[in-house]
Write a structure and sequence with these properties.
The complex is a heterodimer. Chain A is mostly helical. Chain A contains 25 helices and 8 strands. Among the domains of chain A are: 402 residues, no CATH class; 48 residues. Chain A starts with a helix and ends with a helix. In chain B, helix 4 packs antiparallel against helix 5. The radius of gyration of chain B is 19 Å and the shape is globular. Classes of the chains: A mainly alpha, B mainly alpha.
Chain lengths: 682, 320
């Protein structure tokens, strides 16, 4: 048995042990034992994934687990990449979770259910990419959905009533949307398996070529919709900005990285590997969905003043960028451009890896703030830099990555994505020439807005002065929380400075999809090199140059200065007295210009109420100002849909009056209709 | 080989030194042109250098309640611009940066400088700082698509986003520069440069009126040596971006070797090109009024359209 097999066994064993400990042990030992077991699960997954990226293969058939089909597992480089990412995130997040849940009574993160389910959720994240048959994939997918739903609901019995209601609403949205997605997936894969003549992935691969194009198209649309919903792509996203903020922060970190990644994994697996590519319209659809998610997600993030909601919308944006890469890859492959297709897919995968690193750190840092202050509202934070210096430093590092600026780790993925699109113009076809320039513009806009979003998040939450008592009384988090974040920060830094170590693994993962006719990029010790384009990016080189220039500039300014000692001074107050913390810009005011620029898209709701003094209508006593930026898709698409369903439900009550005769009549009509249908079939 | 590399490194250093030394002079020249056109005598071309010297002599000041972000931002602004100056083939395409001078990296480094200043503005915790940061980031976010699309269009003839490759391609085939695609991309980039450097009609560099300030509001709390760095950084940014425009639109004279004489000649030519561009900009600014902040997106949408046209026209006209 190979390394992967042993590591997978270890992951299953430690997750089972963790679940038992979580269910059986009391209080603090429960949190520690479950956390340690989850971390071990993550480490085993990381080992398995790394081995697969280095070329190891593994497959297993367990006939006794899920009779009558049994469970098929197989790990190739593509599965390995997603297992490695999931494992790499689970390990530090589990360490963080020990500290987070231990002293945290605000959320029910330390409860028996939450602690027993967490290791199982981690295990499903690792095993979904290893599934190699429809039944095992669907089983693991559904287990993942159920365990994550239980974790989202962890806080439904603690906290103030408003918070509990929010948790329940989030759980309802998430539960319903994820189950509807499962239905689509079930329909799509069942159709695929029935027509291809087998339910293992090998059988699907062999059978896919003989299917009529209408069936292939139906399978792709059904499964792609389900996977896009899991990835939080607009317009199937409303569960994401609800569920991710309400879940305990370490769970949000896992959901927003390892779990949403699996949506892209599913799409790549079915689209490229099982169906072996498809016509242009599939990929144009994927690309358009990605562009919509990227632009709309980051715009909503710019408007959000709830820190975790902001991060959740940013997840939508980043997964949208990955979808753009996947769509472009399919488009290029269909037009006969193998090399640009492989590059675009590699860019999408690289972006997912980087996103997993910085987003899990951001959610953990947000959780650290939430733990210390009980606040998620940016407008009431401020000044946390001096009260929680370590958390602030980690948040800044991750924000640099999320803003896609060098030397952060998010820059490289977006750079590669832009390169692949720019060089994709060489692929023949009018469609690429029409689609690529707007796609580049969307990526650029989302990068620009992401910079604004994370300047807002970092600047408003951590800089300036506290805007309230709770922010002023914040204390730094305990060592386990900081250790977990430290591991993630090290991961971000490594990905930012020496991304070359990933180069070969990414090439192997792309090759596993059957796209590449040669490695799209090679890794060196210092940077990533695009062999076919003779382009190199050496982030370490750039970071060194930047540091050298920074030190030189600071040193020269200090050397040339006459007086070296720094003096203190009051802030400029226009002569009106010292400015108070209430005068500082809040997240809402920071986003106001952007909101006005994108007024038509966002359609904010504004309400100004002026109460006049009783003496005169011209004397104003008080002004009430309220503004909400609702999610437009929720308002325009989901509300009417929900209302229609409710109305239908009310209307259908009239069908059931309580008369037995009527019910017998229904049964008879149903039987006749069924017989007619059967008789009409050839 | 080593001699070659040393000469290349020397050329790169010469570029950085030229930008650092020349940037205040460029600003001085532009102010002088403006003053003469408005019928004033002007303070002379060397006035910005005298201002910097004066500021360096003053006491460094830390306003109450500010932190590391506020302290580091000025040096980071200068550093990002210096790295950009080193990366770009302003004087020679045979520097050690060749092959690493990616145009997307250049754009991202400049954005890093903007972000550093915006964070410093928020760090002060005053309404001015926050207002400037918010406006600056709004404009920066909206400029980004134009810049990257212009990069897209400019990279097409060379088949690479590497600046040295683009400039070499321009030197080999001058017709491509005057093609519709090249002209449209340069025009779009020029508008983006106005927004990035905070010039009229997007931002008024001389204003101190709170309703109209963008850049100045952000850096209001700086004094002494820190302010000197901020001013130098802003001046260098203008010089580098005008240099980029000159390099892309008129690459003639840029050395393809690292021979000292050729590099010196190239730097002299660069100074002339940038001075002409700067003088033209200053002359235009006398006639322009500042746009309302919420009209700026319309201007940027126009430049985005130009950039889009540049990419598509290059596809349809050359079939590339």
């Amino acid at each position: 048995m190979s390394v992967i097999g042993h590591a997978t066994e270890a992951a299953v064993a430690s997750a089972a042990a963790g679940a038992l400990c979580g269910a059986a042990l009391p209080g603090r030992p429960r949190v520690v034992a479950s956390g340690v077991c989850t971390a071990a699960t993550g480490a085993a997954g990381l080992a398995a994934g790394t081995a697969a990226l280095r070329g190891a293969r593994w497959s297993a058939f367990l006939p006794g687990v899920l009779p009558p089909t049994g469970v098929h597992l197989a790990v190739d480089a593509l599965s390995g990449l997603f297992m490695a990412v999931a494992g790499g995130v689970i390990l530090p997040v589990a360490v963080y979770g020990i500290g987070y849940a231990a002293g945290h009574t605000g959320h029910g993160a330390a409860s028996r259910t939450a602690q027993a389910v967490l290791p199982l959720f981690a295990l499903t994240l690792l095993l979904v990419p290893a599934a190699a048959s429809v039944c095992s994939f669907l089983l693991l997918w559904e287990l993942m959905a159920l365990t994550s739903l239980l974790l989202v609901l962890a806080g439904h019995r603690s906290g103030p009533p408003a918070a509990r209601a929010a948790v329940r609403a989030a759980g309802l949205w998430y539960g319903v949307m994820t189950q509807l997605g499962f239905l689509l997936l079930l329909a799509g894969t069942a159709l695929f398996a029935a027509r291809a003549g087998g339910e293992t992935f090998t059988a699907l691969r062999d059978g896919a070529h003989h299917l009529p194009s209408a069936v292939r198209g139906t399978v792709f649309v059904l499964t792609a919709a389900a996977f896009a919903a899991k990835a939080g792509a607009v317009p199937l996203h409303p569960w994401l900005p609800r569920a991710h903020p309400e879940a305990p922060s370490h769970v949000s970190a896992l959901m927003s990285t390892a779990m949403v990644n699996l949506g892209i994994y599913g799409l790549v697996r079915t689209g490229f590997d099982l169906l072996d590519g498809g016509p242009r319209w599939w990929w144009l659809g994927v690309l358009a969905t990605g562009a919509l998610s990227a632009a709309y997600g980051i715009l909503q993030a710019a408007m959000a003043s709830d820190l975790k909601r902001l991060l959740a919308y940013s997840t939508s944006e980043n997964l949208g960028l990955a979808l753009i890469g996947v769509g472009a890859a399919g488009l290029f492959a269909d037009a006969g451009g193998g090399a640009p297709a492989a590059l675009a897919l590699a860019a999408a995968l690289l972006h997912l890896v980087n996103h997993a690193a910085f987003k899990s750190l951001l959610f953990c840092a947000a959780g650290s703030v939430l733990r210390a202050t009980g606040l998620r509202d940016l407008d009431r934070m401020g000044g946390l830099r001096s009260r929680m210096p370590v958390t602030a430093g980690f948040f800044a590092l991750a924000a640099l990555g999320a803003a896609a600026l060098p030397p952060g780790n998010g820059f490289l993925g977006e750079w590669l994505l832009l390169q692949s699109l720019i060089h994709g113009l060489a692929v023949p076809g009018l469609v690429t020439a029409l689609v690529l320039p707007p796609a580049v513009a969307v990526i650029a806009l989302s990068a620009g807005l992401a910079a604004a979003v994370f300047v807002k998040a970092l600047g408003v939450a951590f800089f300036a002065r506290p805007r309230g008592r709770r922010a002023a009384e914040a204390r730094e988090s305990p060592p386990a929380v900081l250790a977990g974040m430290g591991l993630l920060a090290a991961l971000c830094a490594a990905l930012a400075l020496v991304p070359g170590v990933l180069g070969d693994g990414l090439s192997a993962a792309v090759a596993a999809t059957g796209l590449a006719d040669g490695p799209p990029l090679t890794g060196g010790p210092l940077g990533v090199r695009l062999d076919r384009l003779a382009t190199t990016l050496s982030p370490l080189w750039a970071a060194c140059a930047l540091t050298a220039c920074l030190i030189t500039a600071a040193a020269l300014a200090r050397l040339l200065a006459r007086r070296r000692r720094r003096g203190n001074a009051r802030l400029w107050d226009c002569g009106g007295g010292a400015p108070t913390a209430r005068m500082a810009y809040t997240a809402t005011s920071f986003a106001e210009p952007l909101q006005r620029v994108f007024d038509r898209v966002l359609a904010p709701e504004q309400d100004v109420r002026v109460t006049a003094a009783p003496e005169s209508a011209y004397l104003v006593e008080r002004v009430r100002f309220r503004r909400r930026v609702p999610d437009r898709f929720e308002h325009r698409l989901y509300r009417p849909l929900l209302e229609a369903v409710t109305a239908l439900g009310h209307a259908s009550r009239r069908l059931a009056t309580g008369s037995v005769h009527l019910y017998l009549g229904y049964g008879f009509c149903g039987l006749v209709a069924l017989l007619l249908v059967l008789a009409a079939r050839p | 080989m080593t001699g070659h590399t040393t000469a290349g490194a020397a050329a790169m250093c010469a570029q950085v030194v030229a930008v650092v030394a020349g940037a205040p002079l460029l600003t001085g020249l532009m102010r002088q042109v403006r003053a003469r056109m408005e019928g004033r005598a002007g303070a002379g071309v060397r006035q910005p250098w005298r201002d910097l010297r004066k500021l360096l002599r003053k006491e460094p000041i830390t306003p109450t309640g500010t932190g590391p972000a506020f302290r580091v931002a000025p040096a980071l602004l200068v550093a990002t611009t210096a790295v950009v100056a080193a990366l770009m083939p302003l004087a020679s395409t045979a520097t050690p940066a060749t092959g690493r001078s990616d145009l997307i990296l250049v754009v991202a480094l400049l954005a890093l400088g903007t972000v550093a200043l915006a964070l410093a503005g928020l760090d002060t915790g005053t309404a001015f700082g926050g207002m400037g940061a918010s406006r600056e980031m709004t404009v920066a976010a909206l400029v980004e698509p134009t810049i990257l699309l212009a990069v897209f269009a400019l990279s097409l003839p060379a088949g690479s986003t590497d600046l040295a490759a683009i400039v070499s391609a321009g030197l080999r085939d001058a017709d491509r520069l005057a093609s519709p695609s090249g002209l449209l991309a340069t025009a779009a980039l020029a508008l983006a440069v106005l927004a990035e450097t905070g010039r009229l009609p997007v931002d008024n560099p001389t204003t101190h009126l709170e309703l109209t300030m963008v850049h100045e509001a952000m850096v209001l709390e700086y004094a002494g040596p820190d302010l000197a760095l901020v001013e130098l950084g802003a001046q260098m940014r203008l010089a580098v971006l005008l240099g980029l425009l000159a390099t892309l639109a008129a690459p003639w004279g840029i050395a393809t070797t690292a021979a000292p004489l050729a590099v010196a000649l190239a730097i002299a030519l660069l100074a002339v090109k940038v001075a002409v561009l700067g003088a033209a900009l200053a002359a235009a600014e006398v006639c322009w009024a500042k746009l309302r902040l919420f009209r700026v997106p319309e201007l940027l949408a126009g430049s985005l359209l130009l950039a889009l046209l540049a990419v598509t026209s290059s596809y349809f006209l050359t079939g590339a």
